[in-house]
Amino acid sequence: MLKILIPTLMLFPTTWLATPKWLWTTTTAQALIIATASLTLLNWSSETGWTSTNPYLGTDPLSTPLLVLTCWLLPLMILASQNHISPEPVSRQRTYITLLVSLQLFLIMAFGATEIILFYIMFETTLIPTLIIITRWGNQTERLNAGTYFLFYTLAGSLPLLVALLILQKEMGSLSMLIIQYMQPAPLCTWADKIWWAACLIAFLVKMPLYGVHLWLPKAHVEAPVAGSMVLAAVLLKLGGYGMMRMIIMLEPASKNLAYPFIILALWGIIMTGSICLRQTDLKSLIAYSSVSHMGLVVAGILIQTPWGFTGAIILMIAHGLASSALFCLANTNYERLHSRTLLLARGMQAILPLMAAWWFIANLANLALPPLPNLMGELIIITSMFNWSSWTIILTGTGTLITASYSLYMYLMTQRGPVTTLITAIEPSHTREHLLMALHLIPIIMLTLKPELMWGWCF
Amino acid sequence: MTSWLVRILPAWSRVRLGSVPGARFVSQTPSPGATGSPAVSGLSPAGHNDAHGHVEVSLYEKNRDFHGFHKDPQVDVWNMKVAFFFGISVAIVIGGTFVHYLPDHGASIGPFVLTCMKSSGMRQWARREAERLIKEREAKGIAILDGNYYDPSKIILPSAGEEK
């Protein structure tokens, strides 16, 4: 783990000491080397599940795919931001990269934490760089409102979590994830126990987000600059899923009854947010609501607590992370040229930028869960598991799949097909950088189709 | 010949169309700036300004081979080379080969240890071994799998009358 953390820490001196001319080159190179080094974490050599070299940080088959995704995303964020940040003064560019790197650092420590309190502290710490990125570098005045929603929704959910964790520490004596998995969960009978159960999960449900508490997400995703949107969609949402999967083992057997309202909300959210996507005029807002929809399926998969539910959840989280981040990058390529996110203003782009249309096509196919991509595999595994849990869910999940396909196709057809908007008179050609960015997003998805055992977790 | 800019300011959107000389022009008739332009014109003088008040000029003007990284052509090319090398050649190709040749660890016993004991690694070996054994036993004509794990003739049971 240190071979990932120390180079990430060293990105701070790189950012501040590199000459302005070579700043982006060196940070991109170093971030890609860190991403390559993170692949060594996939070598799970331990029979006990956890591979840890020290008592504080360790990896197991659940956290490793998310760690690799986090490390992979940093160079992609740097590549995506390079153009829109370049007019700013160099010290501000360095500050921006510093924020991205610090976010990376906290995320690595969050996913690698073996102690739940460390995970909680890092979970909260990731809020700060994200808030600064959204409120300082967002483009519209709504960014302040977005930052407020983002910060306070997450905080309101996670302060009860802190109390719940302290109670758990007092009861169990230890909050190390290595030990907690073997402890007998206490039966939860009193009202206070039920509130404690809810307190354990609400923070992660807000983060995922669950349908009823999802309002922060469209605002934050839309107002954030491209790197902020990428990291939010790809990794920060998955912190919620990861946290839920860790906590929910201890919450048995009460979860069987108490989880019902949340499962229903999650399933209903798939359909509602999917339908909202079909009525969006703002491209980034469409992609943001589609994230809520996919994460609703993940929440449902986790809350039913079956092995296949967990497996499907992890696969869908990784696949969605890459696909959603790819879509945000594509939306940004439009935004940098037209300075608007309105769908109607950028129609018929296939005629103008045909190569980018190819990327739009593949990214939208990934989003609508085309086989054999892991997006479909994750969704199918969750849907099957939910069907086994209750046959009626197939109505909701099936309709959800249908709506997902509809809005993904809608997004593709609105931006790429149809007549070119007469308002557009001159569009800059696609940069090599943008093509590389899309390739680095979509090639891993395709490669993961061939080796899904990297993502299965410990349940399959 | 630079084309004049048309700035459109509808109330609900802030689209700023750039005069981007050297960019890919979409053939529209009439040419922009002419009186027959479909866009609302004459709202402001020509000259599309960015946030800092400078006129936005496409970087393709100065550097035909702009890759999107940096305005200095030499840095641009090097950044492109570095990004592609470390991104594709190292991370995807070498990293992918590394991941492909990882040993057959598979998933290990996780938090569900109390509820369902899952098998640990060597899944791929197990499947290959099973296929090999099936092929071998079918060739020999013996049953693929016997109901008894141990050979019943080798189990020595105490007789009923030997209780003490």
UniProtKB/TrEMBL annotation, chain A:
<keyword id="KW-0830">Ubiquinone</keyword>
<feature type="transmembrane region" description="Helical">
    <location>
        <begin position="390"/>
        <end position="413"/>
    </location>
</feature>
<feature type="transmembrane region" description="Helical">
    <location>
        <begin position="149"/>
        <end position="168"/>
    </location>
</feature>
<keyword id="KW-0813">Transport</keyword>
<keyword id="KW-1133">Transmembrane helix</keyword>
<feature type="transmembrane region" description="Helical">
    <location>
        <begin position="351"/>
        <end position="370"/>
    </location>
</feature>
<keyword id="KW-0812">Transmembrane</keyword>
<dbReference type="GO" id="GO:0003954">
    <property type="term" value="F:NADH dehydrogenase activity"/>
</dbReference>
<feature type="domain" description="NADH:ubiquinone oxidoreductase chain 4 N-terminal">
    <location>
        <begin position="1"/>
        <end position="110"/>
    </location>
</feature>
<feature type="transmembrane region" description="Helical">
    <location>
        <begin position="224"/>
        <end position="245"/>
    </location>
</feature>
<keyword id="KW-0496">Mitochondrion</keyword>
<dbReference type="InterPro" id="IPR010227">
    <property type="entry name" value="NADH_Q_OxRdtase_chainM/4"/>
</dbReference>
<feature type="transmembrane region" description="Helical">
    <location>
        <begin position="257"/>
        <end position="278"/>
    </location>
</feature>
<feature type="transmembrane region" description="Helical">
    <location>
        <begin position="117"/>
        <end position="137"/>
    </location>
</feature>
<feature type="transmembrane region" description="Helical">
    <location>
        <begin position="62"/>
        <end position="81"/>
    </location>
</feature>
<feature type="domain" description="NADH:quinone oxidoreductase/Mrp antiporter transmembrane">
    <location>
        <begin position="113"/>
        <end position="404"/>
    </location>
</feature>
<dbReference type="Pfam" id="PF01059">
    <property type="entry name" value="Oxidored_q5_N"/>
</dbReference>
<dbReference type="GO" id="GO:0015990">
    <property type="term" value="P:electron transport coupled proton transport"/>
</dbReference>
<feature type="transmembrane region" description="Helical">
    <location>
        <begin position="93"/>
        <end position="111"/>
    </location>
</feature>
<feature type="transmembrane region" description="Helical">
    <location>
        <begin position="285"/>
        <end position="304"/>
    </location>
</feature>
<keyword id="KW-0249">Electron transport</keyword>
<dbReference type="Pfam" id="PF00361">
    <property type="entry name" value="Proton_antipo_M"/>
</dbReference>
UniProtKB/TrEMBL annotation, chain B:
<keyword id="KW-0809">Transit peptide</keyword>
<keyword id="KW-0496">Mitochondrion</keyword>
<keyword id="KW-0812">Transmembrane</keyword>
<keyword id="KW-0999">Mitochondrion inner membrane</keyword>
<keyword id="KW-0679">Respiratory chain</keyword>
<dbReference type="Pfam" id="PF10183">
    <property type="entry name" value="ESSS"/>
</dbReference>
<keyword id="KW-0249">Electron transport</keyword>
<keyword id="KW-1133">Transmembrane helix</keyword>
<comment type="subunit">
    <text>Complex I is composed of 45 different subunits. Interacts with BCAP31.</text>
</comment>
<keyword id="KW-0472">Membrane</keyword>
<dbReference type="InterPro" id="IPR019329">
    <property type="entry name" value="NADH_UbQ_OxRdtase_ESSS_su"/>
</dbReference>
<protein>
    <recommendedName>
        <fullName>NADH dehydrogenase [ubiquinone] 1 beta subcomplex subunit 11, mitochondrial</fullName>
    </recommendedName>
</protein>
<keyword id="KW-0813">Transport</keyword>
<comment type="similarity">
    <text>Belongs to the complex I NDUFB11 subunit family.</text>
</comment>
<feature type="transmembrane region" description="Helical">
    <location>
        <begin position="82"/>
        <end position="102"/>
    </location>
</feature>
<comment type="function">
    <text>Accessory subunit of the mitochondrial membrane respiratory chain NADH dehydrogenase (Complex I), that is believed not to be involved in catalysis. Complex I functions in the transfer of electrons from NADH to the respiratory chain. The immediate electron acceptor for the enzyme is believed to be ubiquinone.</text>
</comment>
